[in-house]
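Example: Very-long-chain 3-oxoacyl-CoA reductase.
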Amino acid sequence: MSIRQVNGSSWPHITGSSMFDTLDVEHGQREEVDIEAPFDSSLKVGGSTRSWSRGKHAPQTIAKSVLTHNKLMICAWWDWKDIIYYELLPRAHGLQEYECGLRMVVTGCTDGIGKEYARQLAAKGCHIILVSRSMYKLEATAHEIENEYKVNTKIIKADFSEGDHIYENISKEIENLEIGTLVNNVGVFYDYPDYFLDTKDWEKTMNGFIRVNIESMIKMNNLVLPGMVKRKRGVVINLGSASALVPSPLLAVYGASKAFVDKFSRSLNIEYSRRGIVVQTVNPSNVMSNMTPHIKSSSIFGPTAKRYVRSALGTVGVVSRTTGYFPHDVLVGFVNCVEAISERFASWALLKWFEGVRDKQKKAYQNKSMI
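Written out as structure tokens, the predicted fold is:
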């Protein structure tokens, strides 16, 4: 019986060498094989003729198989780690480690996920600073929270699409207040998904993504973090999107803006975790809200904002990056696994799905505009 050993020297150097060595243990000979020779030809190795099939044994094919296997292993770990986090480990107490006497700032807080963060933080006895653009909705939300949870609220009117001057006003309003938690939820979306060049109100939409989805993250963190650093404690929750974790055709700029949130938050967490500050990125998929009019009723993969936020708050102090909701982790893991197996198929399937969403939302938008 002959045993063939393959080690690092057996493969071509990255300098572009077209030859690699094979060691025939049986004959004690080292021979060179030209890997640029046609793979469907017969090669003479160790005194015998051996057939090397391009489809089966080409080094490129082997390397690709190894990479695919590794990606699938990572995908499997992605799903199983979250089963452990969500189902087996006790729920986090990250927010309870910080005195609820400290105030909590929530941006984009009058609807959907942002409003639920404000409500559920208030339910813990925290005093809430509400920041949004509609004074009417701010007053209604503040009244609702104060009556139901018996906490104090403060409202700050700010339209994050207007630019720099709003941050001067926010800074003055919170200047002498101790902020324990910042929830950066404010964000904008398309009227309906579409191809990049076909985006409705292109200039306005793109500026909105930059100012509201990106700039607000940077500047709100800049306003609140110094006090947290001084007190050596604090929690920052930055809302991203699952579109940052998977390919998102027809949502190209929105997905890219949320990828910024993800990258920014992960790096910020590394910088300030040793100073007692938790920075978490939350990347939800579909949740029932004003931004997802195509979701008519809740489901396991499209939960209500209340159900979603309850789950997401349970991850604070456990993970620094999460979808916040286990079924959404399953969706992201599934898409990434399909992409690892066949990027071409995943791209085709995602494009077809998003085109279907576009057609439905565009029709609904046009019908609403005619009313």
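Confidence is low (pLDDT under 50) at residues 1-55.
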